[in-house]
Design a protein that fits this description.
The complex is a heterodimer of chains A (113) and B (116). Chain A is 4% helix and 56% strand. Chain A is mainly beta and 113 residues long. In chain B, strand 4 and strand 5 form a beta hairpin. The chains are: A mainly beta (113), B mainly beta (116). At the A-B interface, strand 4, strand 5 and strand 10 of A face strand 4, strand 5, strand 9 and strand 10 of B.
Chain lengths: 113, 116
């Protein structure tokens, strides 16, 4: 079983729909990242969070440390949101294991016009 | 402020050749991470370096792979005697010296290695 599990693996939505991508992890963490990988392959960091909720434009990320679960929400989705969304976690001990990230397999999102 | 730079963006090698991948971190960043994304797979950690030091290389294959981050110049990921299974996208990320929860990583565009 992977340490980081994402669901769904694939998601197709119509433009304007509200989208939720989920991430569950089984290890202790110091922070969780949400990343976006576009078809060209480049990776952009969307959020880094360790508690609560963060919002940036139409994107919202939440994390529940007790339940070891995070969600990424996209409001008013648009075709340009089509990408792979990746959840990644960082271990709690920065000194011994550095800031290495452990990644989920990603969620392929397609937003149709 | 330029982002993380990687070159080359695409690299083609024949089996048995050497591949050298370069990563220039963001200005002011002294921590570099290398990740590999095999075809149809997720990203996997390879190595974490600070200037002149390898901090964590637990994700590096035991043979043929090495990494360095010299005092001057970019970080280099070197793959000797490449095999077809080395074909992948290799991403570099960097973060600032400040540790702890504020150590966000910024990713480069990746180098796509193809081994013929």
């Amino acid at each position: 079983k992977n340490e980081v599990e994402q669901s769904p693996q694939n998601l197709t939505a119509q433009e304007g729909e509200f989208i939720t991508i989920n991430c569950s992890y089984s290890v202790g963490i110091s922070a969780l990242h949400w990343l976006q990988q576009h078809p060209g392959g480049g990776i952009v960091s969307l959020f880094m969070l360790s508690s609560g909720k963060k919002k940036h434009g139409r994107l919202i990320a939440t994390i529940n440390i007790q339940e070891k679960h995070s969600s990424l929400h996209i409001t008013a989705s648009h075709p340009r949101d089509s990408a792979v969304y990746i959840c990644a976690v960082r271990p709690p001990s920065v000194e011994t294991s550095g800031s290495r990230l452990t990644f989920g397999e990603g969620t392929q999102l397609t937003v149709n016009p | 402020n330029a982002g993380v730079m990687q070159n080359p963006r695409h690299l083609v090698r024949r089996r048995g050749q050497e591949a050298r991948l370069r990563c220039s971190p963001m200005k002011g960043h002294s921590h570099v991470y290398w990740y590999r994304q095999l075809p149809e797979e997720g990203l996997k950690f390879m190595v974490y370096l600070q200037k002149e030091n390898i901090i964590d290389e637990s994700g590096m294959p035991k043979e043929r792979f090495s990494a360095e981050f010299p005092k001057e110049g970019p970080s280099i990921l070197r793959i000797q005697q490449v095999v077809r299974g080395d074909s992948a996208a290799y991403f570099c990320a960097s973060s600032p010296p400040a540790g702890g929860l504020y150590n966000e990583q910024f990713f480069g565009p990746g180098t796509r290695l193809t081994v013929l």
